[in-house]
Design brief:
732 residues, elongated, single chain, eight-stranded parallel beta barrel, alpha/beta
């Protein structure tokens, strides 16, 4: 069982004095450049001024104070009543004076100083370590954001409307553990938490509770690890919409909109119950986490003094964000700001945040634009170093806290770390294969190769295909680090990449890297494309990842960047499949189950024992130029792990291919059993005996298809083989 103890090194934590029996809330706030901080306490989240303000003491880089839970103001906190709080922080650009009052200009020097400080005590800051936000900035009114910016209302006190940190004492619960499995053995299903159940028709649709109730359905899809798009608190109404959640506001607070129970302090309880429900079905949970930027910092209208002041910028802008010498935020993330992941404050936050969610039962983390976390520079420069950065120290940091970090091929009690090994811009931002050994990595080379096989076969050669079959050994020192996928939230769905030639117009443009095709409207080729891509994914060594929506061929009508749409474009219908999609969906589910149940795909002997053949069953030479010949449209391979033997053949050309089956298997009295041929949806998990005729048995493949066979002992052929083997020589 997993204990959900929720204390962190910073933030607000309950402290019970064992000698006196008294209870305290300890408040700790990291701020290297802050000079004074005031803790403000509230009975309600909105509409009132603080009933108590406490000037905090600073030790090193940390402001501290303790609040004894006694007296009328706090008598109900121990019984589970929420307490609301926030901070006013002073610094070099806005100095503390004893006579300062909210809304006062006393102590003000500049909105932004030369060291990039943006302190403003007129704006209440929520705690970066808060476990919940009382409300969002956009919940106040459509134009309320102006009261949280450093522009025309800079000196106006916003405490009555500012989001507050919520402190609530919840009972500890135990969360069931899952079975021990290596990441490379998982079937990862990426999905948006709300989209998962939004169309379920149940009262709890689109919530943590609804996701927990959906656990058996997730399991029936073949998924063993569900990877949720970001669930850290974010403003879903920000800009023109922020449905996906890649603009985090708090790294310890679950997104409150996903909670069926909207009472303050209850969202984490519902989140834990969801984890427990999924674990009971032996489904692990991976969170997509975004530490490379926040949803706060941005500069408006090119005016470096006009920025959001929510939390991090108010508490220590220079420590939490990367800025240049002129005060503008660095934004290699492409999201208005870059976190200062080399700074002590953000490094603390990352490790503390991961520890917190692990205590809530989370099994794995996928790091968005993870190259940013390799940065070792705190200024506007970047220098990526996998050993000296937080990336290199993360395993050690977590293990000093009693948390084991598993290698991708290690089945043990611990957590898995997965990197998206690039960021949007900046020198040397693409770092595929360069993360430490304890990270698995999203493999875009695998994605692009799989897509090209069906969508643009003339653009891909069999050297590239051989690479991905072998776990991209040319990129990874351990091929089990490769997380292979065809599609993800970024870009087309599986159905759409085989239905559209290019992206449709979307609200912020789309990705130019898309490899897709409509096949000129040919539905036969479209369906082959879907089957080919999933087949290649299943045959590729490494970790198998798929979007949950792709299992039921969900379409976004050609929108490849639906980040802002809280509607049916993103909502998934798992039940009402059209006739043309039902057969394909069954093929995908059958292939997922086959992949899970065949041990050969989980053993490195799979790639060590691969033998590659041409259409005449002759071994292909290991001469690289040969593998890149444009006229080479056919390849097959055979492999075994001592228990299972498979044979796969691939035709990416426009013509049929008649090829000879491997002679050595036939000579040994073995037979070929067809599992699938992507010319149709037929699938046979144990294979159907292929009746090969003649001394040189052949198989004919249609254009643009993949066939997979099991090679097994045939008792009749085996007897003939033994009879011939031990036949006495003729008498003379």
């Amino acid at each position: 069982m997993i204990k959900t103890t929720s204390n962190t090194r910073f933030g607000a934590n309950l402290n019970k004095d064992t000698e006196t029996g008294n209870s305290f809330i300890d408040f700790k706030l990291f701020s290297k450049n802050g000079t004074e901080a005031v803790l403000c306490l509230f009975h309600k989240p909105k509409g009132e001024e603080s009933f108590l303000s406490i000037k905090m003491e600073k030790e090193g880089d940390v402001f501290k104070t303790s609040l004894e839970l006694s007296g009328a103001d706090f008598k109900d906190v121990l019984n589970g009543k929420p307490l609301y709080y926030g901070y006013r922080v002073f610094g070099p650009n806005y100095k503390y004076t004893e006579s300062w009052t909210p809304g006062s200009k006393k102590g003000f020097i500049a909105k932004l100083d030369k060291l990039n400080n943006r302190f403003n005590p007129n704006k209440l800051a929520y705690d970066p370590y808060t476990k919940e936000l009382s409300h969002l900035h956009s919940d106040i009114s459509d134009n309320s954001l102006k009261f949280f910016r450093s522009n025309e209302f800079y000196f106006e006190d916003n405490q009555k409307i500012a989001p507050k940190s919520v402190f609530k004492i919840n009972n500890d619960i135990e969360i069931q553990k899952t079975s021990k499995r290596a990441l490379v053995d998982e079937i990862i299903g990426e999905v948006h938490l709300k989209s998962l159940t939004a169309l379920s028709g149940k009262n709890h649709a689109g919530t943590y509770k609804g996701a927990g109730e959906f656990a058996s359905k997730i399991k029936s899809l073949g998924i063993t690890m569900v990877e949720f798009l970001p669930v850290y608190e974010f403003d879903h109404k920000e800009g023109i919409g922020n449905y996906w959640g890649y603009m985090p506001l708090c790294y310890f607070a679950p997104h409150k909109q996903y909670s069926f129970n909207q009472n303050d302090g209850e969202v984490i309880v519902e989140f834990r119950e969801m984890i427990n429900a999924l674990h009971k079905e032996d489904i692990k949970v991976c969170l997509d986490v975004v530490y490379n930027h926040t949803g706060e910092a941005r500069i408006y209208n090119g005016n470096k003094e006009d920025v959001n002041l929510f939390s991090y910028a108010l508490i220590d802008n220079a420590e939490y964000y990367k800025s240049n010498n002129e005060g503008f935020y660095v934004e290699h993330s492409g999201c208005c700001n870059d976190s200062n992941t080399a700074g002590e404050g953000f490094k603390n936050l990352i490790t503390d945040s991961l520890e917190y969610w692990i205590h809530q039962g989370v099994d794995a983390f996928r790091f968005d634009l993870a190259t940013s976390l390799m940065d070792t520079k705190t200024n506007d420069e970047v220098y990526y170093d996998k050993n000296k950065s937080i990336v290199g120290h993360l395993k050690e940091e977590l293990e000093t806290r009693g948390i084991k970090v598993n290698l991708p091929d290690e089945a043990a009690d611990g957590v898995n770390l997965i990197a998206e090994p690039w960021t949007c811009s900046g020198h040397n931002a693409y770092q595929l294969g360069n993360f430490p050994e304890f990270f698995a990595e999203w493999n875009d080379i695998s994605r692009n190769t799989i897509r090209a096989f069906s969508c643009r076969p003339n653009s891909v050669d069999f050297l590239a295909i051989r690479h991905i079959l072998c776990g991209s050994c040319h990129k990874f020192d351990n091929p089990k680090k490769s997380v292979n996928f065809v599609s993800c939230h970024d870009g087309f769905t599986l159905w759409d990449l085989n239905s559209y030639d290019k992206k449709s117009p979307s609200t912020c443009g789309g990705s130019e890297w898309e490899i897709s095709s409509s096949y000129g409207g040919d539905k036969t080729l479209r369906d082959k494309g879907v089957r080919n891509e999933i087949a290649l994914l299943a045959l590729s060594y490494g970790c198998f990842m798929i979007q949950a929506e792709d299992i039921v061929l969900h379409s976004k009508e050609g929108n490849n960047n639906s980040y802002n749409l809280d509607n049916s474009v993103n909502y998934i219908d798992f039940e009402n499949l059209t006739e043309e999609k039902q057969g394909l969906s069954d093929f995908i589910k059958n292939l997922i189950d086959f992949r899970k149940n065949q041990s050969i795909f989980k053993n490195e002997l799979y790639i060590k024992n691969m033998e590659f053949y041409g259409h005449l069953a002759r071994p292909l030479p290991d001469i690289l130029p040969f593998w890149t010949l444009p006229e080479m449209n056919f390849m097959s391979f055979m492999s075994n792990n001592g228990k299972e033997t498979i044979f796969a053949a691939m035709n990416k050309g426009r013509n049929k291919v008649k090829f000879i089956l491997p002679r050595e298997a036939i000579k040994e009295g073995k037979s070929f059993y067809v599992v699938f041929d992507t010319k149709n949806n037929d699938f046979h998990k144990d294979g159907v005996l292929y009746k090969a005729e003649g001394k040189e048995p052949t198989y004919t493949m249609e254009p643009h298809t993949i066939v997979l066979m099991l090679i097994k002992e045939n008792k009749w052929n085996l007897l003939k083989y033994l009879k011939n083997l031990f036949k006495f020589p003729p008498r003379h």
